[in-house]
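Late entry, evening session. Most of the bench is empty. Finally got around to the prediction I had been postponing all week. Sequence below, unchanged from the version circulated by S.P.
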Amino acid sequence: MKRSDHLSWDEYFMGIALLSAQRSKDPNTQVGACIVSPDNKILSMGYNGMPTGCGDDLMPWEREGDFLDTKYPFVCHAELNAILNSSIGLLKNARIYVSLFPCNECAKAIIQCGIKEVVYMDDKYADSDGVKASKKMFGMTGVRLRQYIPTEREVTIRL
């Protein structure tokens, strides 16, 4: 008889997004993303971090101050990294699991590459103009939105 307590697809892919987030060096916000095909094959993963070649120790990680002294003009979001890490053309009709609802810039990239569903865990910036713009664009283009509801299942990984 097979196991009945296996992870669901949503638990599995959101778990991978959350584990990917642990690669982020951002001291305040760690975000991970996992893109999967309609037949549940992992196509790509990403996390928020500085662009390749921009040393993490040389870049600012601050949230406040002069714009160029903060992380905001430099950091690549998890969704964008996952899209850029993928093979061109393989994301059509895919879905993306992300630990934080996509900003408007990532929403544009999600739409442009053909992803059709966003499964997100946290929507803590729901009242921001950026997230409102994301939701408007997703609505206009038919991208489905689904909030992942944690099952509270505990999975331990020993490294």
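Two things to note before I forget:
The chain has a mean pLDDT of 95.
DSSP finds four helices and five strands in the chain.
Will write this up properly tomorrow.
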